[in-house]
Each structure stands twice: as C-alpha cells, then as structure tokens.
C-alpha cells in the first residue's frame, strides 16, 4: 500500500465526494479487471493536481520522485534516443497513479516485452457534436462487421466521454508500419463507402455532421484511454467495456461513473468482453490485401 498525501482532496468540482482516497478505493476494487489491460504497457498519465476542471497535463516519461509502484523502462524514439517511459504492473502502480493525481490512464497498443509488435488495434470514433449517440453506436457496429469480414473479433468501449472505441486484440505478428497501414485501410474503407457519415481525415471542416474515425491511435507512440480508467470530465465517468448486446441499450458514452462500475463488477455474471484475453487472432495476408492501398 502506498502513502497517500491529501486523501481528502476533491478531484471533481461537480462531485465533491470523489476524493483521492475515493479514487484509490475504486482502484482497489477494480484492479483485478483493469490490470490485465494496463500492466506491462507504456502508459500516459493525465495528471490533474487541481482536479478535473483545469490544469490537467499528460506525463509519460519517468521523473524523479515517482510513487512506489510506478516503474519506467527505456524505449527508443525515432531518432534512436532512448527515453524512460512509465508503466505499472500491479495494484500499487494504480495507487501510485492516484497519488500523482492521475485521473486518466492511457495505454499504448503494445507491450514492453515486444515494443515493435503492436497487439491492440483501436478505432476511436469521434462524433461531431451534431451526431447522436445512436449514430455512433451504428458506426461501431459497422466497424465490427468490417473487422469480422477480415476475420477479427472486436469489442466496444464506452470512452466515458463522447464517443466509442472499437478494440481488436491481435497476436503480435505485424510490425508498426503494417499495423498502422491496416488500421488506416479499414478506416478509409468505411469512410469511402459512406462519406456522408464518416471521415478519416483530421481536417476539422470535414468532420461537420460526421464521425471522425481517428485511426491514428494506432501509431507507434500514440495512446488510447485504458479500460476502467476514470475520465477527467465534468463528472467522474469511466471508460467502460460493454458487450455488443449491452451497447444496444446504452444511451451515452459517459453512462458509467465510478460507483456504477463498482456495482456492475460486483454483480457481473459474465465478462462483457468475454474471451478478450484468450483470443489468438491475427491479420491474415488476405485481410491485409483487402485493405491495402485504401
Ligand atoms: P471521446 O469519446 O470523448 O473522444 P477519447 O478518450 O476517445 O474520448 P479523444 O480526444 O478522442 O478522447 O482522444 C483519444 C485518445 O488520444 C485519448 O484517449 C488519449 O489517449 C490520446 N490523446 C489525446 N490527446 C493527447 C495528448 N495531448 N497526449 C497524449 N495522449 C493524447
Ligand atoms: Mn475519441
Ligand atoms: Mn480522437
């Protein structure tokens, strides 16, 4: 157990009961579900020393004075320079993150033990404010179908913000350029098939009335919010894995808060992402060809 300073500090101006201590209690309950997604991966922490309202900043490098439980290991950048990046592998790391006022944990699509072999494909669906959540859900199902056609099972994550992530675990057979190219190919195919609903281009003007498919989360060095991470938004919402069946009945991406996730996990009969950690699926040469050059 780590030493917590200022345990009574409120972290959400709109939910004063959510203190640092409350965040640690959340991690203690949720760790068995969260750690398999987070452990051993390079991590970016969104630290909010003044609470979720303002002044949050990302930290992904080692700094002196890290709480016990947070670790660091070297990664070579594109210039070959090695830098120390954060990771954790047990509950004390989650507690350490809370001690640093990290409200959000973001993971890379790769593990430290195979840094050049990404294994987590994520499509970040970012709706323009005029797009309804029903439309975002439909987009997620379209991704699921397209990935299914490529032989890949996928899973839905409520981000706790505005949109959804569609996640496919992969074996580690692809290098970064092939992995990123495949992600771009899938996203571009959907955008080309239905340009009124989607854009895969970052240009702000293109997003009007559409869903932006942010496939760049699949670049080396990019991150996506970790399953079960709280969000530094107005309310203490949580990035929550849901089953495709459940998704049909959910009305908002921020439908789950800390309390609700704890209750949900305590009552859960089946894992909403059943099979996620047992899947051994890869991108076949045929699937690579299917989305090449798009
Ligand atoms: P929403 O559903 O509201 O879009 P989100 O988590 O998908 O929630 P995005 O703004 O789409 O939020 O960002 C996607 C991901 O990009 C984040 O989860 C985060 O991991 C990463 N990201 C964005 N900005 C930064 C940043 N400045 N530094 C590090 N990572 C970032
Ligand atoms: Mn998003
Ligand atoms: Mn995004």
TrEMBL record:
Name this polypeptide is given: DNA polymerase LigD
Domain DNA ligase D polymerase: 19-273
Coiled-coil stretches: none
